[in-house]
Structures are given as structure tokens and as C-alpha cells.
Amino acid sequence: MGRMTATPATNRPKRVLLAAPRGYCAGVDRAVIAVEKALEQYGAPVYVRHEIVHNKYVVQTLERKGAIFVDQATEVPPGNIVMFSAHGVAPTVHEEAREGRLKTIDATCPLVTKVHKEAVRFAKEDFDILLIGHEGHEEVIGTSGEAPDHIQLVDGPEDVAKVEVRDPSRVVWLSQTTLSVDETMETVDALKEKFPQLISPPSDDICYATQNRQLAIKELAGDSELVIVVGSKNSSNSQRMVDVAKQAGAPAAYLVDFASEIDESWLEGVTSVGLSSGASVPDVLVQEVLEWLSERGYVDVELVKTADESLTFSLPKELRNKDLRAEAAALLESE
């Protein structure tokens, strides 16, 4: 779609190139609303296994409303409600919740669920599954748990040399949804060189929102002397946006949670600042950065729009059950 406005290159004032789309994707929006609805419907506390999404501000806001974040379902007292995050969990976690006498709300992003189902299907057909992703990431742990005997993690092109399979004619690749598109395809190309019969998944696993945010960053990076991405350090898609900005020609790119983390020295000699945010970032944080930049003379804001997003997901079905709290309490009596 390109730029909505254009600013002459000569005598250009300080400006901000603001990416669109940016911020919340449909899966994150669904997960955050799910926690809020659960608290509203069932009352506090609602336990959430891991951060519902990888954003410090969102987690802190939900904690103030009564959400309790835990590392494992086993930490939740029996007879309570636990929600699974947007990143998805392995089947063993569902089993832990059952054994712990917990009622669950599954806020896994439907696009992650799609990858889980692909893993199960290819495992049933006895394929070796090469999962492209980052070791230790929650989404990778969840997907690997669907078919641990069939899945090998490939953490970038440099991992390809050590990959071994049983039958080179029965190999498929899947990927973590929040990766850099370019980085993933570089890994896929290296895998195809080693395994010419490598099968691709039925549809691209990298989520639409990740791709759209990276495309917008690419569009503005070449015209920006500095790119600021709002997002948390543990957000894979936000980290990738910083990488993409640098690869696309931005001389400098930084990730910040809040406007207060911006170092004023980054602005020395800079007339053009690119600004975007990761898929788990509420727009209020971007607006705070815009205000911070405006106070320092960056008052001209130019929207760089590369896509329209209209996708929405329905809320988890468990939120249609008005008696989930009562069902959770009943589990204690069923001993």
C-alpha cells in the first residue's frame, strides 16, 4: 500500500516514520481479553501458566486485576482455574492440570494450535519433523511436546549440519510462528540442500502478524537513521523486528519496553526515527514513545502502511461456561 503521506527530502524536519500494522495481533488480543473475561466472570484469582503474552506492561496490568502468573501448573492450589498462555503447551501440561484437580482455560493462539495439529498428523504418519525455532522458547517446548519422539529442533542454518533423519524421503519442516521470515527460509533452504525431498507444511507456519510487522519495518528501515521497537526482551517477534530493521538498512535499532528506556544519546544527529511495536504490545506504549519523541522535536509523524489486518479469533470456549469456578471447587470434593 505504501506511504499515506510524503515529506520532501530537502529541509526535512525531525520526523517519525510510524509503522502500520504494529502492536497487538489477533492471538494476543484474544489471550489478554480471555484473562480479563475470566476474572470478570469467575472472580480472582485466575492463575495463568507462564506470561499470557510476552509483555511486561500487560502482565503487570493483569496482575493488578487479580491474575496470578506461575511457572508450572503444579504450583496452582487444587480446585482453582488455570489458563494456558497464547504460546501453547504440551499435552503433558494438560495432564498435570487434570492430576492437580484444576479447571483449565486454553488461550493458545489458534495459529499455534494449527502447528500443534500438523505435528501430531505428521508424527502419526511416522515422518521425522524438523522444527525450526529457538531452543527454550515456550512455543517450541509446547509444539515439541506434541510428538517428542518425532521432532528435532533446528535453531538456525548453523544447526543443519548435525541434523540426522531415519528416512530422507519422509521428512517435513514446521516452524515457530514468531520467527523472522528471511531467517526461517534461509534455514529451510539449507535443509532442502541436505534433504532434497524435504516436505513443506501445507501452509506457512509463520503467522500473518509477524510477517506484516516485519514487512512494515523493512519499508521504513532504509529511511530511518534510528529504529525503535517497543516490546519486551523475552518477546521473540519483537527481537526479530530489531534484527530485520538492521538487515534492512537501519544504522541503529533498539528494543525498549517503555519510553523511559530510550537513551537520548541515540538521537544525536538523527532526523528520522522509525517506530513500531511487537505483536504483544498495547498501543498505549507506542503513544508514550510518540509523546517522548514529540517533546524532543519529532513532531512530524508519517504513517508507513504496508497491510490491513482484520482477522479476529473467538474467545476460548471455556469462557462460555458460567460455572467453571463451581466445577473447580467440585474437583476438591471428588477426592
Q: What fraction of residues sit in β-strands?
A: 15-25%
Q: First CA to last CA: what distance?
A: 60 Å
The 3D shape can be described as flat
Cα-based radius of gyration, to the nearest Å: 22 Å
| Helix count, DSSP H or I runs of 4 or more residues | 10
Largest sheet: 5 strands, parallel
Helix-strand pattern:
EHEHEEHEHEHEEHHEHEEHEH
Stretches where pLDDT falls below 50 for ≥5 residues?
A: 4-10
Residue-averaged pLDDT, rounded? Answer: 94
Q: How many β-strand runs?
A: 12
Helicity level: 25-40%
In order across it, which strands form the biggest sheet? 10-9-11-1-12
Helix-strand makeup class: alpha/beta
Task: Write a structural description.
- The protein is α/β, with parallel strands linked by helices and 335 residues long.
- The protein contains ten helices and twelve strands.
- The chain is flat and about 70 Å long.
- The relative contact order is 0.20.
What's a concise summary of this model?
The chain has 335 residues and is an alpha/beta fold. The protein has helices spanning 26-42, 56-65, 91-99, 110-124, 138-144, 181-194, 208-221, 236-247, 283-294, 324-333; strands at residues 15-20, 46-49, 67-70, 81-84, 103-106, 128-132, 151-154, 171-175, 226-230, 253-256, 272-277, 300-305. Strands 10-9-11-1-12 form a 5-stranded parallel β-sheet, sandwiched between helices. Strands 3-2-4-5 form a 4-stranded parallel β-sheet.
